Fold:
Amino acid sequence: MATRAGPRSEGGDTSAGAGSRPGRPGGRREAHRRERTKELEDAALKLFVERGLDAVTIDDITQAAGVAKGTFYRYFDDKAALVDALLAPVRGELLAGMEACGRSLAQARDVEAMFDAYRAVAAVIVGALLQYPGVVRLYLQESRGPAVGARTQVAELSRLVARHAVDITQKAHTHGLLRPIRPAVSALAVVGAVERLLLAVLSEEDIGNLLELPDALTALVLDGLRLPPGVNKPGRRKLDGGPKRP
Amino acid sequence: MATRAGPRSEGGDTSAGAGSRPGRPGGRREAHRRERTKELEDAALKLFVERGLDAVTIDDITQAAGVAKGTFYRYFDDKAALVDALLAPVRGELLAGMEACGRSLAQARDVEAMFDAYRAVAAVIVGALLQYPGVVRLYLQESRGPAVGARTQVAELSRLVARHAVDITQKAHTHGLLRPIRPAVSALAVVGAVERLLLAVLSEEDIGNLLELPDALTALVLDGLRLPPGVNKPGRRKLDGGPKRP
DNA sequence: GCGAATAATGACTATTTGGTCACTCTTTTT
DNA sequence: AAAAAGAGTGACCAAATAGTCATTATTCGC
Structure:
């Protein structure tokens, strides 16, 4: 498997398998290579979103892209590698954005600074949504599934997002900016809410004016999270599992 | 396809294919039938959650259940039918609960009545979580995927849940109990938050004390939704897509 | 206990699938 | 322009898969 007649990259190429090719001059080959790669990725992404990751075969992809089957394997090791390539840009931007938010928040001392940090992540998300709607859709679709096979990377990204969200919330919490709720809980609640709304937008569910969405989300989420005046009073409402209680 | 040598139910049996069998006395056969059905369902559910719906084959299921392949087709028409059977009880309870909530809410005139209605749905959800954790997990895992093949029913349930949630929120909104945010938005946000937290609980992510969860959720969600004193003031915070604005 | 109805079995078929490879075509290098 | 390197092709293979069915085993009505 390691030795091949073909153009396998030798040496210390750390990047996985078939993704990056040898010589890589700046010439015509590279351009063509990029084209082909994009054709395959686009065709695959469309199918993934239509049918689900597992239901799409390599044959489906190559057929949709209009290339021979063997060509696929010149560009990607397997379906998982393709998914990873698809995910890469979104993952990069998203994680960078969340880390930056964490850094800002580490120094935030007032509520306004906290809002700014959150707004910055929102901007990153909106950017990803506009630039890679299909990938975001794929993420939303598959991220909750078990981390096996081609879904591994998507699920892994989901775990990272959750972890960062909790970290961020933790930081805001440390400075006493949030109400006394476990950061793990409020962070996941926010992540869930945002993801569900993104899905609605991408699925064209009727959400109303898109431009009003961020505003609505702010009102909901931030007012839910923010430390309201006069907490810690006993006798707060409870939402227990019991069916009724007189 | 309609005619079979076997024990196919004839006549006007509206329920799908292989699920319900002919004579159905109250005797030993029925008991055994229930057992086998449950064995198949349990084995399948476990695999679905471990590997994802699409990745599990009929062979996997029958092997895990310790029966021959042909036996599967005596109990279910195909994988989709099995999933439907798996989903049935949860779907029933959940939708009934949400409809009841809608009815209560249609008459609710104060915030306390609204809380009560929400609490009742929460109770239904907690009940489902305790009684059918695997099914709930399956739902959370697969509900966002495209509605094709075996996933059709799960996706359909998800659509129903969303629709009911919006309906409910709409009702509360009509009575002026909620802040002026599009019901479609706030409803989906809440659904997303709740689903994400359920997933966390079922995935054994560290959420802290389980018993505190409902309380935290109430604080977050209801304070986010509830009409706060003194809205409608202009100049509310905005969470726009722009990266920065001086 | 006995014949009929029902259930279970697993070998079998037809198809699909991931992955390979010898070969041809195109671009780059010399 | 010729040789070398890279890229594309599709027939091919072994393994896997959904679904069937003749046969065997179990239970039911009597």
Observations:
- Residues 5-6, 23, 25, 27-29, 32, 57-59, 69-70, 73, 78-79 of chain A lie near DNA strand C (CB under 10 Å from a C1').
- The radius of gyration of chain A is 22 Å.
